[in-house]
Amino acid sequence: MIWSNAKRALVIGAVTLLTGVIATLAVRAIIHARQQATAARRRADLARWKTQVWPEERKLEIERIQSRQAVDDTVNAAIIDLSPYINAKLTDAPAGWKGDNADNLAELPAGKNIYGGVPFDVEGSIQLMGGWFKHYHKTYPARVDDIRIGRHCAKLHLLQGNCYITYTNFGTVVSKLVLHYVDGSSRQIDLIAGKQAFDWWNPLFKTGLPKNWFQPAPGTERAWTGSNAYLKKWQPEFSLVLYKTTLDNPQPKLELSSLDYVSTETITCPFLVGLTVE
User: Fold this and answer.
1) Which member of 181, 217, 248, 268 lies 3.0 to 4.6 Å from 174 by CB, making a disulfide possible if both were Cys?
2) DSSP structural state of residue 110
3) 222 by DSSP, 3-state: which?
4) Domain segments of the chain: what residues?
5) CA 237, CA 230: separation in Å to the nearest integer?
6) Closest of 159, 146, 141 to residue 269, by C-alpha
7) What does the angle CA 44 – CA 49 – CA 50 come to, to the nearest 5 degrees?
């Protein structure tokens, strides 16, 4: 009787164990099938976005950008000559390995043109230092001081970009302007990642991206777009993008003598291509 009961217990235990194993395998199979189906849907969505959705969204955004390059919206604006302060040519690639200039702004037209409804004179860029340049063993100044203004103005217009801004450092101050007035006073304006500052490698589409991927602060917009050989090789869906940022002068009744362009030396490497005051 004892042996019979023991055998019965062993059988029941074995059946229970087998049932549990089968149930576990079944659940895993269901989860795997669902994961496979989800992955297949994502691949199908991605293929459709690349061939149908993204090109159309990119086309519409390029048309909007170009429309803002046709009309000067400013009144009595003064273009500031940045040539004494430029430390990078349009054909240079600061965020690239020594000797490799493929990742450049060569497609950006030099000279006076309108971007984001504002006239700028483009000759090169003022490149500031950031942590990302350490990967390339390159050094740029952390700040460029005493950019001469010498006039009253209510607004400052920047044509600018940044190397290496990611979604994770949105909200970080990556650069700032320090304004110096004729009475000796000064004011500071911060440029914040995800508000006024965005990476110069960026998509011109929105499908498939986080909803707040591109929600610039008022006064900031995409103002120029192009590409280069390096971007086409490594991130062909993205575009080169420069941004027009309009900032209010905190003390418009005082003559603005000069300003300093300063990097906060985070991972981001800011650069300034054009400056106009109004």
Assistant:
1) 268
2) P
3) strand
4) 1-67, 73-277
5) 12
6) 141
7) 100
Contacts of 128 (CB under 8 A, 6+ apart): 140, 141, 142, 143, 144, 175, 261, 262, 263, 269, 270, 271, 272
Residue 50 phi/psi, 5° resolution?
Answer: -65, -35
Q: Which tokens belong to 277?
A: 């005051």
Phi first, then psi: what are they for 4, rounded to 5°?
-65, -45
